[in-house]
Amino acid sequence: MAVTREDIVAEARAWIGTPYRHQASLKGVGCDCLGLVRGVWRAVIGEEPERAPPYAPDWAEALSGEPLADAAARHLIAIDRDTFREGDVLLFRWRANLPAKHAAIVTAADKMVHAHDGAAVAEVALAPWWRRRLAYAFRFPGVAN
Amino acid sequence: MAALALSIAGAAAGNAVFGPTGAIAGRLIGALAGNLIDQMLFGRRERVLEGPRLSDLEVMASTEGAAIPRVYGRARLSGQVIWATNLEEVVGSDQQTSGGKGGPKVTTTTTTYSYFANFAVGLCEGPIGSVLRVWADGKPLDLVGLTVRTYNGDEAQTPDPLIVAKEGDAPAYRGLAYIVFERLPLADFGNRIPQLSFEVMRPVGRLERMTRAVTLIPGATEFGYEPATVVQQLGPGQSAPENRHITYAASDVIASLDEMQALAPNIERVAIVVAWFGTDLRAGTCRVVPGIDNRVKATYGGTWSVAGVDRASAYLVSTVDDRPAFGGTPSDSSVRGLIAELKARGLKITLYPFLMMDIPADNALSDPWTGASSQAAYPWRGRITCDPAPGQGGSPDGTSAAATQVNAFFSGGADEWNYRNMVLHYASLAADAGGVDGFLIGSELKSLTRVRSASGVYPAVNALVTLAADVKAIVGSGTVVTYGADWTEYGAHVVDSGATEVRFPLDPLWASSSIDAVGIDYYAPLADWRDDGNQLDGALTDDPHQLSYLAGNLTGGVEPLFVVDGEREEVDPFPWLFGSAGGDQHNRIAEAHQR
What we know:
The structure holds 2 protein chains of 2 kinds. Chain A is an alpha+beta fold. Chain A has helices at residues 5-14, 33-44, 59-62, 67-75, 128-133, and strands at 25-26, 30-31, 77-79, 89-92, 102-108, 111-115, 121-125, 134-139.
């Protein structure tokens, strides 16, 4: 079954308002930034291909390498960072020398849906603050257009 | 019982002495003392300690209807809190068991409370350039590691993601410069939002908006170009900043670039000066080497290395009053990091290898210009020449011996530390870093490009033509390659005083297919005004801002400011800029004294 960008965006928007809960992934109840992407995957593609390992809120500060980007590359299609469109997944890094640890789903040319740490899932502007921290962009497999 | 009573008493005492913060401390001390008494009185095997806890999680109020300030230039503002959530409370618990060996075993559970604040502070009318320093309770606040978003108050700014996530929807506060703090830890501020003030910069000048290119100096700085933080380790437990002397960015160069772009938003191009050191004014014996300012310095966050040379084996620059005369050559990794940083900002880059003459005052080098037994201290590279210099008795100028000396400067020496080595190293570095937009193969080798090996033959110019071709082959056709000729060098060479022979030595270089532009370092003698009233232009006009007077100076009449033996030599042209010989190494480009 082909996946459309509209499906992904609609599903991501359906999560808006879900409270932030570390490691969770349940629409309307609680999720973190990765949980949002996992939930959208379940809705538009199917069963999750891999179980996310337990991780601490500060795992990116404590580990080396790029575990989040590596996991994304296993299941999503890496694209050029500047060519993302609605429905694509973005990964952000907070500081230049740390691995990417935050994920969001593009919903428009200048907007994205993400789970804001300590708050809730929200659709926000892809402001310069975010663009400066953009590390990777990925596309869901089988996106039709 | 005792715990409760003493806790209240402690809070009252603390409140009287220290205010609300003291009250918390007092309550804690009271609780601890009270628990101790309870422990002794009742001999319980378990005790529970409660850390200080705020009873009220509401944050400070802000004034309704306060005026929005308008800033010109720079100002320190405290702003108005325009949005805040309740303080976020994080509860921690810690259990400790003590006793045993016959005594009672006691388990202590300590509950701690830490608080975080989310809030937005409206500053002033936008658009501003940037917010620089931030003070919290009067002390500088280190913004690195905090999540802080600044909105400059333009008409296109978008709502803050945190406010949107908390409120569901939010205004962008267009036209208002504001700053959002996300989860600011309040432990350092007595668990309340600190009194904040902000250094706001709003450029209003015309010159700033017209500026499109800058040259980044000092050029001699081991880690000054490193975008990441580098710390100098002085000893066990002791450290000093190496490249970070501010609190609002990870390094000095990042803060400088941020401020520059805020101040001059139309900047398109940055030239990075990277300096090696020349050791002699005599071309035949001059070595060109990367240098360090300290042999034993230990650094964390970056390790100095240039062209494969490490700190242990690098050339150590000379000292003035026991301080290094120059900063060291920028570490290769810092130059690569800076190139990547500038590219990420969308700026074009010119890489500018530079030669500083590290010749200290007490040298025993024979002076090619005078025959004296010692060369003038820290001269300009424009004074490198053959030995003796053209015009001096016994000069090899006009013979093949002059070519031998000049070629030794460019490519000679068993150790390979020559001029070509420096320039080709940076050409390779630029190519490795993904390419640059412009590249200088050198500048102001004024007395070298005038040396002849035969009538009309200038070996230094030939060497530069070869070097330009070699650099072009490395950096590629997309990079503009040129040479920065001194403004007295780029044109005619009047060979004899009667002007019977006039040549244009640099023409073969400018005509080279590897050179894309004619480069001239131009120091126009526009004006001469000084604080002490001793200006030479006082005779021309009373008004230094008069355009017709300035235009007249530009097009004629006034002698160059930099004349070694002329009438202006007694007046140091830029005393405030270059300092005295013993001054700050970073501000001193000593060559200026020799012009």
